[in-house]
Amino acid sequence: MIHAQIYCTAKQVMDDLHLRGFEDRADLMERIKAASDFIQRRPGNFIPITDVMKFGARPGHEYDPLYLSPLLSVTTLKNNGEDVVDYTLGPYNRMWPNGPYIVVEQDGAWGLEDNVEIAGTWGLFDSSAALGLTITQSTSTELTLVATNGSLLSPGMVVLIESEQELITAGAGGKGSPAGSSATSLLNGSITASDEEITVDNGAEFFQGEVIQIGVEDLFISKIGGNVLAVGRGWNGTAAAGHADDSSIKVYRTFAVIRGVNGTTAAAHSSKAVSQYVAPDTVNYLCRQIAALMRMKAESGFSGVTGNSEGGTGRYYSEFPPNQIDQVLKQFNAGE
Known about the structure:
Layout: H1 10-17, H2 28-40, E1 49-55, E2 66-79, E3 82-83, E4 88-90, E5 101-105, E6 116-122, E7 128-137, E8 144-146, E9 158-161, E10 164-170, E11 181-186, E12 197-199, E13 211-214, E14 217-225, E15 228-235, E16 248-251, E17 254-258, E18 269-277, H3 281-299, E19 305-308, E20 312-315, H4 322-329
Antiparallel strand pairs: 1-6, 2-3, 2-5, 2-6, 4-5, 7-18, 8-17, 9-10, 9-18, 10-17, 11-16, 12-15, 13-14, 13-16, 14-15, 19-20
Helix pairs in contact: 1-3, 2-3
């Protein structure tokens, strides 16, 4: 099973740090993965895992409630090899909204050792948000997602398509990103390296928040007015440059993915809706904070000091702020 427990996206951290896309100085996705791993190893998974787990009663306690690992939903429950359909999960309202159950009860006796088998989804949180996007993947082995609007997806997202979870690992011109796809529109009029507005043949072909490529320069679309695009120049560590009239334009709408993560099964999909699994807001914020601190400390050569004596210096003492970590994660100790 490939565990994909990523609790914030590259786009979120870029927005937090006012980054101009994926810059080369520190690998942003590696920091996000490390921050998510640090969080996951404390209370547990905040994105559902599909799995079969086994439990059993202690001798002499066969009729007591059976305590479980955090359980989000049951597909099947077997006790001593027999299907059980009449059972009660607790607590009645879960541990918290969108949270788990931790106990199951029935009228009969529970099996001992590992004779209670539960197939279902497991974890501390189960929440997803529709992205307003449909996707087609013609085979179960395709390793890309192609969106009609590239601004709706970001590396770091764990998405749900039908019953399959997929992890978006690269895109939008960053490290390992698939190439952009050719737009129908061309550049309408030449531009210099300093122009922050460009005119295209048809502005309706693009979306705010997308990254486009002209020549070898990446540009970020911050706003669209008719056929005029307001753009951030030299995105993703590329150099701003002049471009001739009728230059071709590419758009980053293809994203690299890992299929069938978190115990789900890869399958073909035809025009199916895409949702994004989301961690609790506080966990998402903590992940962004740790990832950002990791990145800034790595940029300082791990000295924790940035800047200079003329412009001022900044210090980053700990990329793992203990008070914030404790305050956020202690809320999700399901066993307490």
